Amino acid sequence: MAQMAPAEPALGVRRPALSPSRASDFKQCPLLYRFRAVDRLPELPTKAQLRGTLVHSVLERLFALPQPERLPERAKALLEPAWSELSADRPDWTALFDAEEPADVREWLTGAEKLLDAYFSLEDPRRLDPEACELHVEIELDSGVRLRGYVDRLDVAPTGELRVVDYKTGTAPREIGEAKALFQMKFYAVVLWRLRGAVPRQLKLMYLTDGQSLAYTPDEPELRRFERTLEAIWQAIMRAGRTGDFRPSPSRLCDWCAHQALCPSFGGTPPEYPGWPDPDPGAETPLDRAD
Ligand code: SF4
C-alpha cells in the first residue's frame, strides 16, 4: 500500500505540531506514538487519570474565583459540577463507574478531595494572581518545527519573571514520572522563551498525590539544546511517518500502556499502517495534560 508522506496542509488548516505528550510518547516508544497519534486508537482512561483531569478542571475554576474565596471547601464544592460537565462532554467516561453503585463515584470524588487537600498544603491560592490557567501556547521555531501545548498555570511576578506551574496527579512512581515531567516543563519553557523573549525564571511541578513540589530553574543554553532535541524528535517522527517504521521500545512504562495486546513486544500484531494522518497528527487531550 502506498504511504501518504507528511505534507504541508492547505492554508487555514490546523498545522501539524509537536505537543509535549506526543513528543514524550515518541521518545519513550515510537510504536506508542504511532498508536496514539497516527492510528488514534481509543484509550479509556483509568479512574486515576480521570480524577487528575477533574482536579485540573477544579483548580482552573478555583483561580477564576475572587482571591478571598479560594478556600479548600470551595474547591471541593466545585468537584461535582466539574464532573457533571466533564461527563456530559464525554458520556463514555461514565462507563468507568458502576451505575448500580453510587458509592463508586463518591469514593472516587473523595480521592479527588485528597488531591485538593495536598494542593492546599503546598500553597495558598488566595495569595496568587496567575496570568492564566490552561493557557494554550504555540510557536513555530526557525527550523519550521511547530510546538503546541497547554500550560496548567502561568504566574508572572511584578518584575515580569515567569513561573510555569504544572500539577501532577498521575499514579506512576515519582522516579519514572519525574524525567517525563521535566521534559514537558522544558518544552513549555522553550515555547514561552520563544514567545515572550524571556527564559522562565522557574518551572514548578506540584505533585498532588504526595503533596510535594519540585522547582527547577532553566537557563538559555540548556533551552537552546533542548530546542534542538525537540527538532530532532520531530525529524525522527517525520521519517517514521514516511516509512511507517515505528518500532516498539519496551520499558517499565509498558505497565501503563493501553496497547500491549497490539504490541509485538507482548506477542501482538499492530494494525496495518494507515499512512500519515492528514493534516494533524494526534493532538493532546485533557487526559494527557492531567497525567
Ligand atoms: S507495550 Fe511498551 S513497547 Fe509496546 S507499544 Fe506500549 S509502550 Fe511501546
UniProtKB/TrEMBL annotation:
Q: Where is the PD-(D/E)XK endonuclease-like domain?
A: 18-264
Q: Which domain of life is it from?
A: Bacteria
Ranges where the record places region Disordered = 269-291
Cross-referenced Pfam families: PDDEXK_1
Q: GO terms for molecular function, please? A: exonuclease activity
Q: Does the keyword DNA damage apply?
A: yes
**Residue stretches of biased makeup (Pro residues):** 271-280
UniProt keywords, alphabetically: ATP-binding, DNA damage, DNA repair, Exonuclease, Helicase, Hydrolase, Nuclease, Nucleotide-binding
UniProt-recorded name of the protein = RecB family exonuclease
Taxonomic classification, please? Bacteria, Bacillati, Actinomycetota, Actinomycetes, Pseudonocardiales
